[in-house]
Amino acid sequence: MAVRGALRRCVRLLSWVPVLVVTAAALWSYYAYVVQLCLTTLNSTAEKVAYLAMFHVCFGMFSWAFWRSVFTAPSSPSKEFQLSSTDKQRYAQQDTLQARRRILVEISQELPVHTRSASGEIRFCHQCQLIKPDRCHHCSACQTCVLKMDHHCPWLNNCVGFSNYKFFLLFLTFSLLCCSFIIATVSPYFIRLWLGEYLSSSVKLHVLFLMLVSLMFFITLSFLLGIHCWLVTKNRTTAEWLSAPFFRHGPDQGAFDVGLKQNVRQVFGPQRRLWLLPVFSSHGDGQVFPLRRRAASDTPQALPSNTTYVDEEVKVMVPEVIHDCSVSVTVESLIP
Questions:
Q1: Strand pairing partners for 251?
Q2: Is 114 helix (H, G, I), strand (E, B) or coil?
């Protein structure tokens, strides 16, 4: 047991390495841009002030969003989804799988649960001993059930879900903005260096690496942010994009798509003045979500738990799996 505990602590410590790498890269870029480029290389005072002001705004928002993404704990289901001590005892005493299924169906009648497992059963987490709310998955890395789980991101050492998905999107947005600003302002000095114009050896090194690193992250972040913006407009998580959620009528990847306006508001909230700030403003509690209906409305409400889901069309899409170093979706998190 002592050896196992020591191994777990080592794994926990190692899981912070990617976060430290991102932090170190951000601090280096700050030094390279502020000290080496602006304070050492630029001659115009007006240029220095403008560059420094814009960079600090972008860098400050990036840092705020990044740390909110890292340190915002994943939201877990409330107590109403957990089995009571009586129900746990009843469940454990059953000898057959069908009897246990009947108990879960009976308990779920009182809960706003619509999704099912691929076999049509109630989604039950044996580790957390609870009935999973819609869009909730168990993360093997965090060892907990996460509301509206999108994916587990090793670069944040955290699950991206209902509690911090907005922060994750803003982290990608401000990272891309920082890279774009660095590329735009460093390009003239990079061209001068490329043409052989004299620059000090220290500035040469930092200008070269700033440009290359920014370009690399610009391409990666553009691709990743584009995917997540598309997912927001469709009201899907990464897990739902890769594996369609199941309902009583079968799989339906667009079940939670209730229109562009409402989809965006579910993530960013109704107050537009808060959309670009890394403060929590997402709509709802992460446990109940409106479903697409035959007669759509501008402000759809969640269907009662005993309502039979009916939709005009059921679509099953198999998207191309794209490998990206910034996204890590564990196999366990995709199993209903």
A1: 246
A2: coil
Q: Give catalytic status of residue 229 as yes or no.
A: no
Q: Choose the catalytic residue: 128, 136, 139, 153.
A: 153
Residue 68 sits at the vertex; the CA angle it makes with 67 and 70, to the nearest 5 degrees, is 60
- Residue written as tokens 């992460």? 286
For residue 310, report the phi and psi dihedrals to the nearest 5 degrees.
-130, 135
80-114 confidence digits (pLDDT tens): 999 999 999 999 888 889 999 999 999 999 999 99
Distances (CA, A) of 141 to 8, 63, 273, 293, 328: 11, 24, 35, 35, 11
- How many Cβ atoms from other residues are within 10 Å of residue 30's Cβ? 15
pLDDT of residue 324: 38
Q: Which residues contact 13 (CB under 8 A, 6 or more apart)?
A: none
Tokens 């939709």, located at residue: 311
Q: How confident is the model at residue 4 (pLDDT cuts 50, 70, 90)?
A: confident
Distance from chain centroid for Cα 98: 36
Could you report the per-residue pLDDT of 257-294, keeping only the tens digit for each? Answer: 999 999 999 999 999 999 999 999 999 999 999 998 63
Instruction: Say how far apart CA 186 and CA 190 lie, in whole Å.
Output: 6
Structure-token pair, residue 231:
């997912």
